């Protein structure tokens, strides 16, 4: 048998002919409602990841007609996901993007998915809440800017996400206001996770088992996690509660149509200045879907790319861009790590990569010479990812690399998710180069600022002392990592300084919405997926409320 | 080279509860790659092969991982990483330019190509590339250090550590579906994971490692 069938989903769209792939059964199908292009559907959603997935689900459940587009494939994990880093790159956005600035970003693996379910198909499942004060960081902490959202409101949506995804987490979470008990018990902490625990105890700070979106006990179609450790290359058992096996099947069941391998290239606006639908490329041709509302949920690069590329005579600077802020204030998380070798065998490839963490420096404000916070987590990179760390700023090759890699089973590491500040110079713009669809590719510009650097220095120094505290040897710091993408279409209270309002509705075009990580005004020091999903659930509720009042 | 996991071959688990059908297909396809170049020309291929031997020296007592062929295969498929440092041309052009430039640097050094240099000379040239000291006009606008870090070392090492031979070498448990792993704590090994040879206990580890399946 050839391995071609493992990439069939990249070539042949599956959401068609009234059916969708059943992600829980080999070769299975489930019925799916379909809408013709010329039907004026209530909502077109562009992107089916952490923003578009939950939104499509909830809007369909509320009775709206919904068509969601994704540029990527619709996989059946049980029969199409291999336990292999290289092969599973099929889950990443591997189309060309140009990166520049003082610190050109590396994209793909840890920040850009291209599949139905988006990056949640290969995310590390870390499911954290923002610190409440971050929603008012300007007022309460003196940096960044305030979100137009109330933390207690968000707290309710976080709970809803955690319940929906059956997050497995600890009984007591050491930081922040009281939160409800996680629906599933915490996972067993593996050797690298226990090393983090010992390092934290040596430093006198709290740690916790990481709340994770992979089930620790059976759930309907999901078996408990078997700790195979290939989480960030896609879960082949369906233990991971990705959008692909949660929001998307629920959306289809509720009557939404999902179009895979459908690249949206441009949003059309009508005589009235409102969005009228989207031009999309599928099965070799450009087509047009009419819609009453368009939601852009392509994440912090594709969302501004689409808005900018939709410029027309009425909106020469792109859609929703009267503030000039579309594409601006791109944020990442710094992702620096400190690595060392232990006497004991660690075998960090077993289990989810980050089974324990500390949010100490997210909640402690004294003793810092920088604004913002960071979490740090235990690590378990697979061989090629680990070699990638060694060949980065560590600069190893030749026999030195071979020798270092031999210590694989004794390595431990602590890695941060570090807040970066919004800066206008960090941006997504359109390059001259074109992609396979003839669309201009994104140019992604990112440079760290002094505050970002001070945060990283603090973190590296602290984590280094943590590893010293557990007698790790050969300690070194990885200097150039980043993860996650945020900003580029920020929400706010003032149309002059933001792109969308608290409901993710664009100020300029009332039937154009943006619902993904792009709307973050600040980045916080935690992985963004749970916040994106919480915002999506809130947006769905607000849309339902606005519709009820006739204000849609 | 002294083996830390003597007798361990991750491929012996191919028919065990640790490998599923998709994984078998993917690894079979990877192991079938080898032989003559299908994308690079002969001169580029020779240079690449020599570079691979310096970036990842391999022991002579086992079949080598065909690194040049794996990199050539990546170029043939023209599969990018999802980003490109703006100072680099696209994947294929970057490699063609980089290999040609490296050869030109070697020519400028002593009139022979990169393959004609001694191992020490080759290492010196690669180190100079890593320090961004190579400025031959053939590089055009591509800084040699950007090619070195984003393409040369990245593509070669990721090809190597995607190969079962490398997994066996470093004691990686390898694919683990559907069985996964059970023993999660420090110094705890599932019977289907390799055992490291403790001093004086080489034979014991070797015996265990013959039966990891």
Helix content of chain A: 10-25%
Number of domains of chain A: 1
Please give the radius of gyration of chain A in angstroms. 22 Å
Gross geometry of chain A: globular
Q: Biggest chain pair contact, residues each?
A: A-B, 73 and 62 residues
Summed over residues and divided by their number, the pLDDT of chain B gives a mean of 96
Distance between the termini of chain B: 25 Å
Family (chain A): Belongs to the GMC oxidoreductase family.
Domain Glucose-methanol-choline oxidoreductase C-terminal (chain A): 422-536
GO molecular function (chain A): flavin adenine dinucleotide binding; oxidoreductase activity, acting on CH-OH group of donors
Organism (chain A): marine sediment metagenome
Structure description:
The complex is a heterodimer of chains A (552) and B (213). Chain A has 552 residues and is of the alpha/beta class. Chain A has one domain (40-548): FAD/NAD(P)-binding domain, CATH 3.50.50.60. Chain A is 23% helix and 20% strand. Chain A has helices at residues 8-11, 52-61, 77-80, 137-141, 151-164, 191-203, 247-253, 299-309, 360-363, 383-391, 399-405, 450-468, 529-548, and strands spanning 19-21, 29-31, 41-46, 66-69, 98-100, 168-169, 184-185, 208-209, 257-259, 263-269, 275-282, 285-296, 331-334, 337-341, 356-358, 374-378, 411-418, 427-434, 440-445, 473-478, 482-486, 512-514. In chain A, the strands form six sheets. In chain A, strands 3, 4, 9, 10, 11, 12 and 22 form a seven-stranded mixed β-sheet that branches. In chain A, strands 8-15-16-17-14-20 form a six-stranded antiparallel β-sheet. Chain A has a three-stranded mixed β-sheet with strand order 5-19-18, with helices on one face. Chain A starts with 7 loop residues before the first helix and ends with a helix. The model of chain A has no long low-confidence stretch (mean pLDDT 97). With 213 residues, chain B is mainly alpha-helical. Chain B has a domain at 29-165. Chain B contains eight helices and one strand. The mean pLDDT of chain B is 96. At the A-B interface, strand 5, helix 6, helix 10 and helix 11 of A face helix 1, strand 1, helix 5, helix 6 and helix 7 of B.
């Amino acid at each position: 048998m050839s391995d071609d069938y493992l990439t069939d989903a990249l070539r042949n769209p599956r959401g068609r002919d009234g059916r969708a792939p059943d992600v829980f059964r080999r070769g299975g199908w489930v019925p799916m409602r379909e809408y013709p292009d010329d039907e004026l559907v209530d909502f077109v959603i562009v992107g089916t990841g952490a923003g578009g997935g939950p939104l499509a689900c909830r809007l369909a459940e509320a009775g709206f007609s919904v068509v969601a587009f994704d540029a990527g494939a619709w996989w059946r994990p049980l029969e199409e996901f291999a336990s292999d880093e290289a092969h599973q790159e099929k889950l990443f956005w591997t189309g060309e993007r140009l990166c520049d600035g003082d610190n050109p970003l590396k994209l793909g693996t840890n920040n850009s998915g291209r599949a139905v379910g988006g990056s949640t198909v290969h995310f590390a499942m870390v499911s954290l809440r923002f610190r409440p004060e971050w929603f008012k960081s300007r007022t309460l902490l003196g940096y960044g800017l305030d979100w137009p959202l109330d933390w207690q409101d968000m707290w309710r949506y976080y709970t809803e996400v955690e319940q929906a995804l059956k997050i497995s987490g600890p009984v007591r979470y050491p930081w922040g206001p009281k939160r409800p008990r996680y629906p599933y018990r915490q996972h067993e902490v593996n050797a690298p996770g226990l090393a983090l625990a010992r390092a934290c105890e040596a430093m006198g700070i709290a740690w916790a088992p990481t709340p994770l979106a992979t089930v620790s006990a059976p759930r309907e179609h999901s078996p408990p996690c078997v700790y195979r450790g290939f989480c960030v290359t896609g879960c082949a058992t369906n233990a991971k509660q990705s959008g692909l096996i949660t929001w998307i099947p629920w959306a289809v069941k509720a009557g939404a149509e999902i179009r895979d391998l459908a690249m949206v290239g441009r949003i059309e606006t009508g005589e009235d200045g409102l969005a009228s639908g989207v031009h999309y490329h599928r099965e070799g041709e450009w087509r047009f879907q009419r819609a009453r509302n368009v939601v852009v949920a392509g994440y912090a690069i594709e969302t501004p790319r689409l808005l900018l590329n939709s410029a027309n005579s009425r909106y020469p600077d792109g859609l929703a861009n009267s503030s000039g802020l579309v594409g601006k204030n791109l944020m990442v998380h710094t992702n620096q790590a400190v690595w060392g070798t232990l006497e004991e065998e660690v075998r960090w490839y077993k289990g989810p990569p980050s089974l324990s963490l500390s949010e100490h420096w997210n909640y402690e404000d004294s003793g810092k010479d920088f604004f913002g916070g960071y979490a740090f987590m235990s690590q378990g990179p697979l061989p090629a990812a680990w070699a990638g760390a060694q060949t980065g700023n560590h600069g190893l090759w030749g026999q030195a690399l071979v020798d270092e890699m031999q210590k694989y089973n004794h390595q431990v590491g602590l890695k941060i998710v570090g807040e970066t500040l919004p800066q206008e110079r960090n941006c997504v713009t359109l390059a001259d180069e074109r992609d396979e669809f003839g669309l201009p590719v994104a140019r992604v510009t990112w440079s760290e600022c002094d505050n970002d650097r001070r945060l990283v220095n603090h973190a590296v120094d602290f984590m280094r002392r943590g590893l010293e505290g557990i007698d790790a040897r050969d300690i070194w710091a990885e200097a150039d990592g980043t993860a996650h993408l945020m900003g580029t279409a920020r929400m706010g209270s003032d149309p002059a300084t933001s792109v969308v309002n608290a409901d993710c509705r664009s100020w300029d075009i009332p039937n154009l919405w943006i619902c993904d990580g792009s709307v973050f005004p600040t980045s916080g020091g935690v992985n963004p997926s749970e916040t994106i999903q919480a915002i999506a659930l809130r947006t769905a509720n607000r849309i339902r409320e606005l519709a009820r009042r006739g204000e849609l | 080279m002294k083996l830390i996991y003597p007798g361990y071959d991750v491929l012996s688990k191919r028919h065990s509860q640790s490998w599923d059908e998709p994984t078998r297909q993917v690894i079979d396809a990877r192991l079938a790659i080898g032989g003559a170049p299908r994308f690079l020309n002969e001169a580029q291929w020779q240079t690449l092969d020599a570079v691979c031997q310096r970036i990842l020296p391999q022991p002579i007592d086992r079949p080598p991982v065909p690194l040049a062929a794996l990199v050539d295969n990546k170029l043939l498929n023209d599969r990018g990483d999802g980003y490109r440092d703006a100072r680099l041309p696209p994947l294929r052009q970057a490699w063609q330019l980089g290999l040609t430039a490296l050869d030109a640097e070697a020519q400028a050094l002593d009139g022979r190509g990169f393959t004609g240099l001694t191992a020490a000379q080759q290492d010196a040239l690669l180190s100079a590339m890593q320090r961004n000291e190579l400025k031959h006009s053939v590089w055009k606008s591509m800084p040699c250090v950007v090619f070195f870090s984003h393409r040369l070392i990245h593509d070669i090492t990721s090809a190597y550590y995607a190969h079962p031979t490398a997994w066996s070498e470093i004691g990686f448990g390898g694919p683990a579906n559907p069985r996964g792993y059970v023993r999660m704590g420090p110094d705890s090994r599932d019977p289907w994971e390799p055992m490291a040879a403790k001093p004086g206990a080489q034979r014991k580890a070797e015996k265990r490692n013959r039966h990891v399946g």
